[in-house]
């Protein structure tokens, strides 16, 4: 008969959890009772077995905890004590280690905060993942190709039509961003008391804006009013708290009136909290979209005109893919505007708004996914170099500690204990570094806000995610940098280490420390080379001749169309001693913040749907001369010219297939269906940044379109006379246009503004490569200090035998020169690849030449050699007697 | 006060170890506790007490022989130490001394 067996799971549970020395008797006793139950034919024998077995588990947990806890606790205390002491004994090493790790970790934390900030943009809306922005793609098909023109704006009737006709769209909301708005605050009698230039914060939105963008994750609240009511009626406006404080410093803004752009009296119908910093809707003045329907009813029917700041956002119905919706949109567009065959509306995920520079956003700042990734990699490398320093110093130090290890082993310490001890030592170092890094990163973030464009919402110390990240990195760094040295050190055989055999170090060979130093310097070199390339490219941007004279030109706006006023003002400016020329035009020849207007042009031969898009400009007779723009053929405008004359630039001339400049002059072209005559061809100049190519440009002389006055100053560069001149300019301007706000910009600054982002990158890169160099040199310094100390006797003997100081220095630096050279060889191809990728973003860039790599390479080498020599010089100069006196 | 601390359950189990002499182990003690003192204790509780007694030095233990009825596993045999016996006696004496002082009529 087969014997009944007790439940197996109870046994296996006991095997796993009970103290191993007790398992046998426990199972024995249980089995005996079980057999007894069976023979006595008692019920539930198995059940009893399980109950009794589980009873053991609770009891045994209790025992286990009590006995083991006490011993391990004692050991832990001793580990910490030992760690403290040895860290204190090797103070200089500890300081170097902590410093390297602090710098690495602080930078990594800063980068982490930046990445977190950048990827949190507009992620707090309930529907964030499901909101799309309609973008406009002009090209040959419904897909984005190299030649497609990518814009954000949709024509005004588009959102309404889609809302009514598309079955795939659940909700749609339109936003019209107003780049520059003049806000005036009248008092009770109607006189204007305050004026504000709202350059980047005014928008017209629909009530549905707030149901789509609910800012739910940020605790956003309406202080007074409600989205449905406040934004329904035309000429109502909702202010954020900061705007309302600015406009109405003396109290409640609700119900008050403000005048926008001199025409429209709007009533404040709601106050909302400020939008968070991590939103691409930087609005503070939100007027009702219905205002637009009253003010410009005609526009609401115009399917072809587009304003790029007029965007529409949609939430699709469930079950409709992006492609389906795009198809349906195309169908509706075709129905209403069949003549626009090359225009397609497509969808861009709202969250991509912050990352896709091709379309941009209202914030005017995007960051590509690549940049975010690059930052992440840099953060990782920063941590890594800190770890490498630690590993190098710890293994170098291990020879010095071999006696301690030997003795510990003799006294009965086993390897696990030793490893634990070293890990705890590492942990202490990393922990100290982590805490310091937290403080430092906070400091960096506060001081570098302008550079990182980040607005941290709270202090680090209170941010659980960041603290968590810090904790994870502390633990990861501890293991990464501590494990190898711990295992290495604990592997020493006690006999050899006590016999004093460890003092001489093996020379040559392939050891981990060399590999690590090479890796560290390799990373540094990549970064230094890239930085160098970036700096050179920036210099190229700034020094390249843009094709027009931009020095000492200041621009002021022409806010009113009145030609008499304008002409008088021009005359007044001209009569100033510091002015050498004045010109009125629609826009500037270049610069980031200039008016932009694009139109279509054709010749008699071009098919109607192949119009060429050009940037529009309107100038006066003085313009070409003031900006020293070269005429290739033909002539400048005359005061008496008819309005149907055009100047083209070379690019447009080529794109219209007009032949060479001489042939082009006098040819007719078609603009807006009207015939114009080309009277001259101007040489190409860079109206856009050098990142882009040269646009088509056509210029007419239409005084109605003048918006900007360019004043060429004839003064030196000293601050005083510029300030004086600008005060005079301001006085004259204000006398002419008393109801507007005076604002001016130097063209130089305006052109530089193209490269703000690159300028920031340059600074960031410079910072990072400095940090890498710093950490690398710290590590090198620690290493060489150590080696020098160990080799003092050897040095002394060599010196006694007649070695010179330079030969001793060479002895020390030889190895490191080699390592740096190898790292340079490894870094060059990687740096080449990265720099090449980056440079290819720009239409005009420097060529990658050998000196772009050699210069930073030599720099790094020199720094490394200086560090090594500076430290070893002391030892080499020392009197040999000092080191040989004692034996 | 005596420096020896012996809880009530510990005293009982220690008594059983003394009673069972060379045959004191978990299951036997559980049985004796039931027979002699009418106390139904779980086997795990008895083990816990035995180990506590051993820690305090009242008993010592060694592994006994294996037997078929235990599925080939050995049992841990406990033996009372002199210290343990002293402790038992001291507890008993103290109790007897106090009992002799308690007036008989009061019951």
Characterization of the model:
- The complex is a heterodimer of chains A (887) and B (107).
- Among the domains of chain A are: 8-71, no CATH class; 156-336, no CATH class; 508-546 and 755-887, no CATH class; 560-739, no CATH class.
- Chain A has 28 helices and 24 strands.
- In chain A, the strands form 3 sheets. In chain A, strands 1, 2, 3, 4, 5, 6, 7, 8, 9, 10, 11, 12 and 13 form a 13-stranded mixed beta sheet that branches. A 6-stranded mixed β-barrel of chain A has the order 16-17-22-19-21-20.
- Residues 65-69 of chain A have low confidence and may be disordered.
- In chain A, helix 17 packs across helix 26.
- Chain B is α+β, with helices and mostly antiparallel strands and 107 residues long.
- The longest helix of chain B has 20 residues, at 82-101.
- Chain B has helices spanning 8-20, 26-37, 43-56, 82-101; strands at residues 59-66, 74-80.
- In chain B, strand 1 and strand 2 form a beta hairpin.
- The chains are: A alpha+beta (887), B alpha+beta (107).
- Chain A binds chain B through residues 22, 24-33, 35-36, 51-52, 55-56, 58-59, 62-63, and chain B through 25-27, 30, 42-45, 47-48, 51, 63, 69-71, 73-76.
Keywords:
heterodimer, A: 887 residues, alpha+beta, 13-stranded mixed sheet, six-stranded mixed beta barrel, 28 helices, 24 strands, globular, B: 107 residues, Arc Repressor Mutant, subunit A, two-stranded antiparallel sheet, 2 strands, elongated
